[in-house]
Amino acid sequence: MEVVTKGVIALCMFYQGGIIEHTYIKDQKMSTCLKMKRTVERSVNPQNVRMACGKVDVVLEEFMGETKIVKIIKEKY
Asked: How many CA atoms does the CB half-sphere of 66 hold within 13 Å?
């Protein structure tokens, strides 16, 4: 079942100006998102990939107890 939600905190990965990955933050805290961002930035090449945390309007889907972002409707970047 898909649900449209406004203002969901997500970690987004950008490559060559476009968004290539988005991750739903389970506890919806910006501090958790920033912690995940720092972890990812240490493991990827920061010259090629940009990470950003922020509130975005999305379509969410819950499957087997996991909430996932299906589509970003409106991004803030």
From this structure: 7
First to last CA, the chain: 27
pLDDT at 77 over 70: no
Name the β-bridge partners of 72: 58
User: Which amino acid is present at 61?
Assistant: E
Average pLDDT, the chain: 88
Average pLDDT over residues 32-46: 91
pLDDT at 6 over 70: yes
Handedness of CA 55, 1, 18, 40 (dihedral sign): positive
Distance in angstroms (rounded) separating the CA atoms of residues 65 and 41:
28
Q: Is 42 exposed, middle or buried (0-12, 13-18, 19+ CB in 10 A)?
A: exposed
pTM of the model: 0.83
